Here is the input.
Amino acid sequence: MYNQILVLFLSFLILAFVVWIFWPEKGLYAFIKRGKRNSKKILVEDALKHIYDCESKNLTCSLNSIAGNLSISADAAANLIAKLHKMDLIEHGTDNVVLSSFGRSYALRVIRVHRLFERYLADETSVHEKDWHIIAEDKEHLLTDLQVNELAAQLSNPMIDPHGDPIPSASGEIMEVPGIPLNSLTPGEFAIITHIEDEPGEIYKQLVAENLYRGKQIRMLESNKERIKFIANDEECILAPVFASNITVKKIEKHEEIREEFKRLSSLKIGEKGIVAGISRKCRGQQRRRLMDFGVVPGTEVRVEMESFGRDPVAYLIRGATVALRKSQSELIYVKEYVKEEELN
Amino acid sequence: MSGIEINKKESLLAAANNMRWEIGENFHDTLMESIYADAAVIAKKSVLKKGKKEYTGWEQKLDKIVTSRIFGLPLMFVMLAVVFWLTIEGANVPSAMLASLLLDDVHPLLKEFSAYIGLAWWLDGVLIDGAYLAMAWVVSVMLPPMAIFFPMFTLLEDFGYLPRVAFNMDNLFKRAGAHGKQALTMSMGFGCNAAGVIATRIIDSPRERLIAIITNNFALCNGRWPTQILIASIFIGAAVPAHIAGVVSAGAVVGIAVFGIFLSLVVSWGLSKTVLKGEASTFSLELPPYRPPRILQTLYTSLIDRTIFVLWRALVFAVPAGIVIWLVGNVSFEGLSIAEIFVNWSDPFAIFIGLNGVIMLAYIIAIPANEIVIPTILMLTVMTAGIEGAGAGAGVMFELESASATQDILTAGGWTLLTGINLMIFSLLHNPCSTTLFTIYKETKSMKWTIVSALLPIVMGFVLCFFIAQVYRIIIG
Amino acid sequence: MSNLNSAHNCAVCPAHNPGNLKKLGINMESSDYVIALAGNPNTGKSTVFNALTGLRQHTGNWPGKTVTRAEGGYEFDNKKYKIIDLPGTYSLLSTSTDEEVARDFILFGQPDVTVIVVDASRLERNLNLVLQVLEITDRAVLCLNLIDEARRHNIEIDVRALSKELGIPVVPAAARQGEGIPELLKMINEVATGKFVCKPHRITAGSKKLNKSVEELSIKISELYPELPNSRWIALRLLEGDQRIIDAVKNGDLGTLRKQNTVSELPEAV
Here is the structure.
């Protein structure tokens, strides 16, 4: 026979090796997969997106900016530009690069896929906000036209991506979304966040970490060159102007829409009641619709009924039915203090 | 379709699209709110007495216990154990009676009849020793436990207990990155994995639905209990004093079932960290009010809908499988039957991981229906080990009257406690049956995920059996 | 087909849409009327189905167990009825598969009667779905199920007032005990044969701006498809960007839908 202990030891080693190869993100397989990403199609499409971005921001797009944006060498960028030109995707100026009409519609298609996919991730899946952009960056090069249209149909043809950017239509039209930068808001004004720029990723991550999202209502407290200070829902938030300039807002008149004084449903204890004041904008898509189907609309009375093991999920009595919700959902429902009917009269 | 009409359609859609931009994204919210506002007005006009509609009394008290943070989960496992114990204990007697009727009385009659009409020996073998015996085995072994388990399960289901199970277990599923309703589909899987896979339609999110589909196989389906129950009573029940043997074997089966739940959580976690990346999303499950089930109707429907349905399916697969078993036992090359050739070939690897070649072959033959694993194993063991005086000849599937007779044969075939334990593990961890695989393909419409669902458990089974074998050999020697 | 255009008042002939029903996989050869059964989960819908058909389909007690459509049939007053048990849904406005199945059947199949089963003890919550169904179809009967449970909880419902508010017949029932089933059969028959003409309640759509858009769009839809019974609802769906409805506008599927209460196909002999 063989030495069992040695066999056991060796097989543990083999198992550890296999685990290392397939370990998510840090494993060998993930590493190789990442390395394979730089194919030519992806470079072309990323370059088109970059040029489109420059054009829409009225910036000049040059060889250097392309090389910088795609993190490739200047030589490679020059080759790429030559290639784009050959494919009739760009019109070559002396110093700047301009999209041809074909190139523009190609770029818009890529943008459409990207934004649609972000919307899909936000509405239908539970992928974390900070990963939306990264996954969409990948998918924008992979989906076929048919798949894209199916995706749009499944999402009921959304108009705006979760960051607030308009989604180009299938025929390549793109709408303008009005709004002003957060910096230009004067203290005391109320506004609603309509757009958060997702590039550069570092800044975006920071903004996500501050729990800022589209649809959030804010009140400006202080705005100067050093810092921008405002109240978002019930938390005070301070940002450097560089960060704040990545946020677009729309002014609103109604003060009462600000939900500072409201509690979250998740903060109620067993037996306590509350009146639904609204659902946070962070709750999107199917999830939001489901809650409303259960009758979670402003004015509905909710009572905390039962807690499960680990205090999550919690069952609530909503319009006569017991509905179990996870904490991540009940956190997004705002409730007002419950007042007994007799007390109202 | 005229050109004008097409233009009109286009302009209609364009107008709708422009309005969508004007109205903005709050459309759905506003609409829902106004529907509820209308509903409130109508309800106010038509509901005369509001009464005390909040559920109180026994329903609430029961919910407080059943979904209690402390007692909820233990209560669930106790209930599971009781259901299994009742199934194991209750099925013994009718199983033996059916077996003696179908195998001891009817089988010889059929044999006599075929001799009387002078049926060719191979036709007699294929039809009576193959197809009929497989069918007889499935009926006698599966019908009694199913007729006990399904009504009990259905009573709990009709009563409204399943959503509470989902509620109790959701925290674990959330940590595993899975959907809370996966607990529901898993419960259905305890009945039949194919039904469990279909039930995953209640999960909205495609990612979590896929996880639920792939891991459904870890819920021990009813086709695999006969194996679990028999092996548990032979090898584990026999190791303890006789008066607690029933409880201990039921405990072992529950242990395997709970281990399956644990694995389904672990695999869900693994999948949601790797290929099916994402965070746990929503739960939003309604816990319906308890409704006292109507016992008689439940018995009737569970018998018609479930027991007969599942039994029928098993029979449909058992007949051809019985024929195949008889053939591999009797068609030979160079003096060795196909079965012996395969067993000899696969024995080194199989024994290395604590199983044996007979088990391997039995699982290949039993791909269409797991129910026939045990009879196939017995038949092949007798044949390859060359045990004299047991069974009814080469390739004849038979049932032994007592578990101890079965144990004698298995021990003579070289089985140990290790083989028993590993067979129980392997019965939990191997590819789903062909019906389930086909259902998975129909539901996912993806060959890739079907293959993943088939290979993942079988690889896990091999790896786990291997480690158990090594550790067992180090400790026991 | 010329008689289609002349608006005859045919009170007794079926209103269902045979062409579309065939597309939806329903064989209508041996039935006179088709009935759809809609309702929230956990309202005893399957029990009502069993009570109507005499079948014993298994009724589990967990939401979402009817994932597929069940079919059954019965005879009443010498007419053959086919009854389709739709998946239980809380709403018809979301995009999940079960809701689409239910929605498509009621919209494109144009059942002669849609029976909406509600839990009498949770009426207000169930009305959400009722109001949505009434946007789509003119022919419906409300089955106020679990009335025994409501009584036990001391809830009393003014059936007449409710019927007046909704514009459809309301039948209190306790399907488990068989209570109210004969009345339900009778009311289904009356609506199917046109003896009872429904005047369903329609939703008042939120803000002024929204209402104006819905009106505008609804007029445009009516111009294109004058026979359409539910242009307002189609307008609402277009505003939500529902691809199924956009496609139905494009490929003319909407053109196959007819007003149900006044116009229907006449027998060939006429």
About this structure: Residues 1-31 of chain B form one domain. The mean pLDDT of chain B is 80. Chain B has three domains: 1-31, 74-307, 315-476.
